[in-house]
Amino acid sequence: MKHEPDNSNLHDKSAPCACSAAPAPDNSTRREFMLKIGFALNAVAGAAVGIPLLGYAFSSFFKNHELDWVSLGPVDKFPEGKTRLGQFKNPVHRSWDGVTAEVPCWVRRISGDQFQVFAINCAHLGCPVRWFEESKLFMCPCHGGAYYENGDHAAGPPPRGLFTYEFKVQDGQLMILAGALPTLAQPNA
Ligand code: FES
Description:
The chain is an alpha+beta fold. The chain has two domains: 26-62; 68-178, Rieske Iron-sulfur Protein (3-layer Sandwich), CATH 2.102.10. Helix content is 21%, strand content 29%.
């Protein structure tokens, strides 16, 4: 026997409607929630991009660009009439700089407390120069620049002599004013 659906209530206006009994979804609440999530994500993305950019833009105001006196060691470490390689830790460094914070330089002890401390970088394009005791010359391996033992330009493309650090002897220590590579922008370079 075929079962006929009971449609007797379909047109019965007095019967309660099942569809109206279910709670309507609260679209406005969901929209607000999604908007809040969107704003939060935008804020996070904005911070991720913006904070480093702001840090870069304003870093010059906060970074310690001050030059500082650092020791190259006791003066006795540098024999008179000789040129020796020195090394110091850059006073402007970060904890993650590692060995790159160690900066070499050439130290020429003329006599007593008379020194010349040269930046190791060639005045042409910055390659590290080497000292040759036999010829009493600093030589640059990059383009053949050469300097006399007092740092003056001897030959090749460098437009000037080696840059020098300001120095002083204090408590038996040879100190130099470090923190930035000496350049023409510094009065004593
Ligand atoms: S970098 Fe030294 S001669 Fe060019």
